[in-house]
Design brief:
The structure holds two protein chains of two kinds. In chain A, about 65% of the residues lie in helices and about 10% in strands. Chain A is an alpha+beta fold. The model of chain A is unreliable at about 305-324 (pLDDT under 50). Chain B is of the alpha+beta class. The chains are: A alpha+beta, B alpha+beta. At the A-B interface, helix 4, strand 5, helix 5, helix 7 and helix 8 of A face strand 17, helix 11, helix 13, helix 14 and helix 15 of B. Strand 5 of chain A pairs antiparallel with strand 17 of chain B.
Chain lengths: ~325, ~525
């Protein structure tokens, strides 16, 4: 049986040739993302701004107009009422009402009761969050993303060298900016689930980066005399096949969730999907070139090369094109 | 590569067996599992509220109310206590402004005695200072300031009691699988699976349920009451259904002396609540009603007078009935509230999430299908990419999926909707370790190594990358769990479990399978 090989054996792609182009591109997109968030903002869900979101599912096509009239009749402030996913379900979103901490929950109750009285077949999911809680959720979400980035970067710094730690941090920053920028662009709802997705991206984007860094470290010990740029190319080509297979298999899995999974976690899934894509790109074009700019060379790992793989590497000092 | 010790084979097989056994109950319907023999594991995965349907309420205590309440209680204790001293200590100009209690002792010679008495009303707070500071100002003015330590301790106690009370109210029979936990200093989280309509629950929790019986002050003139003024020692309270009435400040009996409360009917078949006092409550009630026959007394709930009936004869048995405009349901709610005791602090709903059970079922269905399709897609991909080694990766993958289910069931962790996403993601990423290994084997073969050497080197060289890559994910997952709330936590739990099990299944299990095959087949060439 002939097995599938996504990357032919003698692939020797000159990734680094495009590094400056990629850098400019990435800077543009990152800046654009930040600008977009600054100008257009995010469509923050009730988790972060407070208020309520009520999903109502009917046993038939949802009577949006009737519901709109019912809600308007309650005089509880502006409500946005939209179809959600399928024609049987609508979502009612309302901002934070004036009043005490429990005002949001009280308004949610009134809306629910009014709709239930007119449409006994309606089923509800209610999310109602007070301003106090939403602020905390926002803060803890931001803190956890920042700490995750920092924690991972520090770990990489300890396991490798400081240049690799900086590279990891910049890569993560790039990926997170891009994902948040995507949410600003599409105005998809940005809620707690999306924060979970971003944390996942932080973890998995680094997955690729770490595997490539691992190989770079190995090759640095192996090909002591080689220039850094061709060496990065060697490492990237050696790991390319693995990068492709893993990224594709995760994408296949996520594609299933995107196409048939529940509507509620669409935001989470699309964020991870995008993150895997961006993460794969950035591990090649951001995290590796940074090592060039930060001056990583064969000497970076010198003190540690007395034992282990370096000794083995020594046995087969060879040109990068050896054997393939 | 070939020397894979026998004990290791047994060890790994045993772990696999346990993992699979733990997962099995979750794959069958609950009714069926209930019929299984006792020795078979039967713990099933706990579905999170978003999948099972139910209500999640986050309650916050009104701490300012608590401080105010403490001041009022201290004021009452001083008024009554100082009057009872011998000789009685006459005080005036009591104020509870600025969160402290100030009063003037009329006779300067009694200041020391008053301070002495005030000190007896304070207690050490924890290991630190006392819960109130007592100071003398301008020679005859006494100031009592609550200390922070005292406030903190009072809050902790109040929250513990509140948690207990909430639990008793939500689940009086202990039959529902409710979760009531304290969160932070001032919050209580209530989760009730299967509850689709949280309104009854919110009404139940929204009342303090402080029950008091007090005598009506008949000396108060209607004009005074209308203006909200009452004679000394009395207070004006609103009546249920409008109006107001003056009652004595001192309570004859309070809800603390209740031993039972249940819904009942009166002679006209109107729903009400029957209550029973303990012996001290019954005695006090008997004495006061005997002394006040033909005078009215007030039944007060949360500072609202429910009714003010006349005492026709002394009430001696320690039994009383609370009537009002109740339905069976509201009478029942009141009975539950009274039985569970009064809430020491007022609680407010600051976060509510309610998910209809049917929507939950829908989510499970599609989430399950998506997880299945994702697994199949990944398996197919592995098979056409790595052939025989893809089969091993697949076996590792399936076992990994079962391990995750088994561990979730074992620890009673809840599977949530984002948890399903975490599961799917883990499936996708779990093969990464195998991809790393297999790619490495391909590489070593290309370098001209012989089959067994290549396999050996593949597993060895890939291990550092596998380790580093997974640690970074663990860091993210741990932080997610620590800082996240609700959905994020559910996701983080699955992710953490998935990372650990996937490393085990992708490295140890496949390695064993490869070793067993290699020993038997002695392959000379390897297609990978």
């Amino acid at each position: 049986m002939r097995l599938l090989k996504l990357v032919p054996d003698n692939t020797n792609f000159d990734f680094m040739r495009w590094r400056n182009v990629a850098l400019v591109l990435s800077i543009i997109v990152t800046v654009a993302s930040i600008a977009l968030v600054a100008v257009r903002g995010l469509n923050l869900g009730v988790d972060f701004v407070g208020g309520q979101m009520i999903n109502v599912t009917f046993s038939r096509t949802a009577p949006i107009e009737e519901v709109r009239e019912t809600v308007e009749g309650l005089n509880v402030g502006d409500a946005s009422i939209q179809e959600f996913g399928d024609p049987k379900t609508i979502t009612i979103r309302m901002g934070l009402p004036d009043g005490g901490d429990d005002a949001a929950a009280k308004v949610a109750t009134r809306v629910r009761e009014a709709i239930a009285a007119k449409h006994p077949d309606a089923k509800f999911t209610v999310d109602s969050v007070s301003g106090k809680v939403s602020n905390e959720l926002y803060r803890s979400g931001a803190i956890s993303v920042a700490l995750a980035m920092l924690g991972i970067a520090i770990y990489i710094w300890f396991r490798f060298e400081w240049q690799f730690g900086v590279g990891a941090l910049v890569t993560l920053f790039h990926d997170v900016c891009m994902t948040i920028g995507f949410f600003s662009l599409t105005q998809l709802e940005f809620n707690l689930n999306v924060v979970a997705a971003i944390l996942t991206i932080v973890g998995y984007s680094l997955n690729d980066t770490v595997v490539i860094y691992d190989r770079i470290r190995e090759d640095l010990r192996k090909y002591r005399k080689m220039e850094i740029v061709p060496l990065l190319n060697v490492s990237l080509n050696e790991t390319l096949s693995r990068t492709m297979v893993t990224s594709l298999s995760i994408m296949f899995a996520l594609l299933a969730l995107l196409l048939i999974g529940p509507q509620v976690i669409f935001g989470l899934t699309i964020a991870i999907f995008l993150g895997i894509f961006v993460g794969t790109y950035s591990s090649i074009y951001i995290s590796s070139p940074i090592l060039v700019w930060l001056g990583v060379s064969g000497d970076s790992f010198l003190p540690k090369t007395s034992t282990g793989s370096a000794a083995k590497g020594g046995e087969r000092v060879a040109t990068p094109n050896e054997g393939y | 590569m070939l020397d894979f010790p026998r004990w290791k084979v047994w060890g790994i097989s045993l772990i696999c067996l346990i993992g699979v056994l733990l997962a099995v109950p979750s794959l069958f319907p609950a009714e069926q599992v209930a019929k299984w023999p006792k020795w078979v594991p039967s713990a099933q995965i706990n579905l999170g509220l978003d999948l099972a349907g139910g209500s999640h309420l986050l309650l916050e205590a009104d701490t300012s109310g608590l401080a105010k309440q403490r001041l009022e209680q201290m004021e009452e204790r001083l008024r009554v206590g100082l009057r009872r001293e011998s000789p009685p200590i006459d005080i005036g100009e009591i104020s509870t402004a600025d969160n402290k209690l100030t009063f003037m002792v009329r006779n300067p010679a009694q200041v020391d005695a008053a301070v002495e008495f005030a000190r007896t009303q304070t207690q050490p707070a924890g290991l630190g200072p006392r819960d109130w500071n007592v100071d003398v100002l301008d020679q005859n003015r006494i100031v009592m300031t609550p200390t922070q330590a005292g406030l903190d301790q009072a809050l902790t106690q109040a929250m513990d009691t509140a948690r207990e009370v909430v639990y008793n109210r939500v689940d009086p029979d202990g039959t529902k699988e409710v979760t009531v936990i304290r969160q932070g200093d001032t919050r209580i989280l209530v989760q009730v699976p299967g509850l689709e309509d949280p309104e009854a629950l919110k009404t139940l929790l929204g009342k303090t349920a402080r029950l008091e019986f007090k005598l009506v002050d008949q000396t108060a003139s209607p004009e005074q009451v209308a203006q909200g003024r009452a004679p000394v020692g009395s207070q004006v309270l609103p009546m249920q259904g409008g109006g107001a009435i003056a009652v004595k400040r001192r309570a004859i009996v309070t809800g603390d002396q209740l031993i039972d409360a249940k819904q009942s009917y009166d002679q006209n078949n109107q729903p009400g609540v029957s209550i029973t006092f303990d012996s001290t409550g019954a005695k006090a009630f008997g004495r006061v009603t005997r002394e006040n026959v033909n005078k009215p007394f007030a039944i007060i709930l949360d500072n609202v007078v429910l009714s003010a009936p006349n005492i026709n004869e002394p009430i001696l048995g320690g039994q009383a009935q609370i009537m009002g405009s109740y339905t069976v349901q509201t009478a029942n709610e009141l009975a539950v509230q009274l039985r569970s005791g009064k809430l020491p602090v007022e609680l407010r709903v600051i976060e509510e999430r309610t998910i209809g059970p049917e929507l939950g079922k829908e989510s499970i269905k599609w989430g399950g299908i998506a997880a299945g399709v994702a697994t199949l897609a990944v398996i197919l991909f592995m098979l056409i990419t790595y052939g025989r080694f893809g089969v091993y990766a697949t076996i590792g993958l399936i076992l990994n999926a079962l391990f995750i289910l088994g561990i979730l069931a074992l620890f009673g962790a809840s599977l949530t909707l984002p948890g399903i996403a975490g599961f799917v993601l883990t499936i996708g990423a779990a093969v990464d370790a195998n991809v790393l290994i297999n790619e490495r084997i391909r590489e070593e073969q290309r370098r001209g190594r012989r089959v067994l050497d290549a396999i050996e080197a593949g597993y060895r060289e890939a291990s550092t990358a596998i380790f580093d890559a997974n640690i970074t994910n663990v860091i993210a997952a741990v932080l997610m769990f620590y800082f996240g709330s609700g959905p994020i936590r559910g996701f983080a739990v699955v992710l953490m479990i998935g990372i650990v099990t996937s490393v085990f299944s992708a490295v140890n299990i496949t390695r064993m399978l490869v070793a067993l095959w290699a020993r038997r087949a002695r392959p000379r060439e390897l297609h990978i």
